[in-house]
């Protein structure tokens, strides 16, 4: 496994790195996400497009020219619950890979505080290796089955990490006042992923998967309640 150095928008640099490393597969999870949050992208559209659109196309094209399988981790925030895909409708009414985008309220987006599909990387990154090894192509909804709300996540945090933690809720209207753009909320149907991976990886329903996230987080905490310095460092 090799961690790339190139910036996606620097086509020559990406090409040179591909030719030097000669990978069999590329997994691209790079992208401008904005700091302090995704609203940054609303004010910096050119820089965001340069990395996330031009850069992703650069890398995909350069991989295609070399016959290298390229996996792009993108976003499900192009969908919003609607009459055909209602909140609480379950996986069979979730958005599939064939559905067209129906959420355009933000130019760039991120989800908050309503039941949504979510990806537990600890379980799904191994699944992405299976997909790459099988050289599957096309769009694959990359999330755990089911939906989970922000409150349910915080409740798991309270249960496993900090029983003294408290929070108060935002209404959607109150939230809208502090955001530059609306946020997308949806359930993605991930049956295609589950079928593709089969028994090669464990993919749990999202509540069970998140419970395991917090159990691992608790185990990784040091005795004084802080994370070890090297927990998120590159190996
Ligand atoms: N996290 C989620 O729940 C989620 C959900 C849906 C979609 N996504 C998408 O997945 C991607 C990654 O998300 P994340 O949460 O992992 O974001 P993140 O924590 O902000 O990480 C983004 C990574 O991309 C790198 N990067 C940014 N611009 C780059 C460029 N021009 N060339 C090469 N590398 C670049 C950053 O490196 P530097 O720090 O060096 O710039 C950083 O390592 C984004 O496109 C995001 O929209 C994430």
TrEMBL record:
InterPro entries xref list: dTDP_dehydrorham_reduct (IPR005913), NAD(P)-bd_dom_sf (IPR036291), RmlD-like-bd (IPR029903)
Top-rank taxon: Eukaryota
Domain RmlD-like substrate binding intervals: 8-84
Transmembrane spans: none
Protein name (record): RmlD-like substrate binding domain-containing protein
Species the sequence originates in: Tetraparma gracilis
